[in-house]
Fold:
Amino acid sequence: MEAKQSGSSEKEKFEYDMKLVEAALYVAGRPLELKTIASILGSRSKTRAQLVARALVDQYRQRSGALDVFELADGRFVLQLKPEFTPKVRRLAVRPLLTLGPLKTLSYIAFRQPVTQAQVISVRGPQAYVHIQILDQMGLISCEKLGRTRILRTTEVFADYFNLSHDLRLMKRQLQALFESLGKFPPPPVNQKPELLKQQDQSKRET
Structure:
């Protein structure tokens, strides 16, 4: 009798954990690492987190709904709308992540990175100071001080949110294809002192 009760209790706990992971993926709106999933479950075990998350993947595969849970190649898990439904419902989104101005600045940074803040301001205008602050606060870009300027790059949060590769070269190819499909192209780079970026890359190698 006690064994049956113990088994039933463990099953209920596992099912609850699956619901907890589902809720976490829904709220996050981006891929989650096993470490994060484990912390949500109140556990240090990535093995258990993976077991629960994969069970959730299997559960969604058996459904015929509009959502799916995927395990990505790098081991993260994500809850997403099935591709065939996206074009039909995209316009119903409550509001975009960013307004047009910051979005254009973000696009320029993503395509030209690593790029100096001075270069971004030269292309996007003085309003880009505010855009950069917004993007930094949202965790979409990183700002690394170098001398009198700052070096701007996109973050993993940016790549995850826009479903782009973490590999910089591949990301830029993805962005190029996107710009071409929209008939739009990022502004050409302005002349900057290349030694700034070379100095920054050198400092990276030395650390």
